[in-house]
Amino acid sequence: MPYYRVVGEVPRKRHVQFRRPDGGLYAEELMGEEGFSSDSSLLYHRHLPTAIIKAEAVEPVDAAVLAPNLPLSPRHFRTQDLPDGGDLVTGRALLAGNADVRLSYAATEAPSGLYRNSMGDECVYIASGRVVFESTYGTLEAGEGDYVVVPTGTIHRWVPRGRVTALAIEAAGHIRPPKRYLSKYGQFLEHAPYCERDLRAPSEPLIEEGEEVPVLVRTRGGLTRLVYRNHPFDVVGWDGCLYPYAFNINDFEPIVKGIHAPPPVHQTFEGPNFVICSFCPRPLDFHPEAVPIPYNHHNVDSDELMFYAGGDYTARRGSGIDVGSISLHPAGFTHGPQPGAVEAVLEAVRQGHTRTSELAVMVDTFRPLDLGPAALSVEDPAYAWTWSR
């Protein structure tokens, strides 16, 4: 995270005695990234965060095998056809992934159990509905259009308020704002399409009582269920630059040019060997001879996965793409507008059309994406040939 926050009660100095009302000491926990040489936070627990009383291996609920994208082909998956089930952790239907990132879809009304992903950060995009995100850092309310960024190792759970659909992006490392948006000291710069004011973080501690509390933990070795002697939600205060936060896609300020700009202007986050971009409603390109629609393009180093979250994606009208669709355009394939789309948008401009209405989340990966069984189960087999109609 690019800036410091303090929530609840903390002592004036780090690593000094901090006593409870009964005279005992609060238990200090340092959560730190990259061998404590990067962002960190200090959390103060009422009970020892190290006190576990049981550990057992858990069979993975998502042991699906990924398959290479062969034969090489553009793909269209209809997530709206996937069944509801599980929760926002165990109900994730694996769509695609590689060694750097896994992408899953979930639709559920069920609350999750306590969960800790110790393999990497997560960025969960709430496509519809509302949910309460609870963690050792406190509570976040999240709803349609929110990205919720969860740091590695955060114990948390998801409590939907009705049915929720979400796209889960699980990294094998850390997810951060792009470096070019930040000063060398970590402040958002004036040219950045969002800033600190747009980020929402927990504002007060979340205290829960409980004993023998299970927490599902994901590590590189697999899944383990640890049983804690006391409930992990016992933090009376914390401070630092590492914490979960939410950012709504509608607070992203699109960067607009006179002629069509390439996807880096939409970048919202970066992860290890991938980026996350937000395509938001914006003014059309305004050069008098502009073609305000993507040109045919081939990102030779990336696979491009696009989740269509709302609005009307003009460039692919007539291809079968709709809200809830995911397209995958792999490296090795040139893609672009649907045939006839260029002429259609130019005619719309002549008739006074001045804005786009599209809303989409794109993940570009710098290693090939393999395909999950959930995606293949809802694939539109005719999509690859839509440019030939």
TrEMBL record:
<dbReference type="InterPro" id="IPR046451">
    <property type="entry name" value="HgmA_C"/>
</dbReference>
<dbReference type="InterPro" id="IPR014710">
    <property type="entry name" value="RmlC-like_jellyroll"/>
</dbReference>
<dbReference type="InterPro" id="IPR005708">
    <property type="entry name" value="Homogentis_dOase"/>
</dbReference>
<comment type="similarity">
    <text>Belongs to the homogentisate dioxygenase family.</text>
</comment>
<dbReference type="Pfam" id="PF04209">
    <property type="entry name" value="HgmA_C"/>
</dbReference>
<feature type="domain" description="Homogentisate 1,2-dioxygenase C-terminal">
    <location>
        <begin position="273"/>
        <end position="387"/>
    </location>
</feature>
<dbReference type="InterPro" id="IPR011051">
    <property type="entry name" value="RmlC_Cupin_sf"/>
</dbReference>
<protein>
    <submittedName>
        <fullName>Homogentisate 1,2-dioxygenase</fullName>
    </submittedName>
</protein>
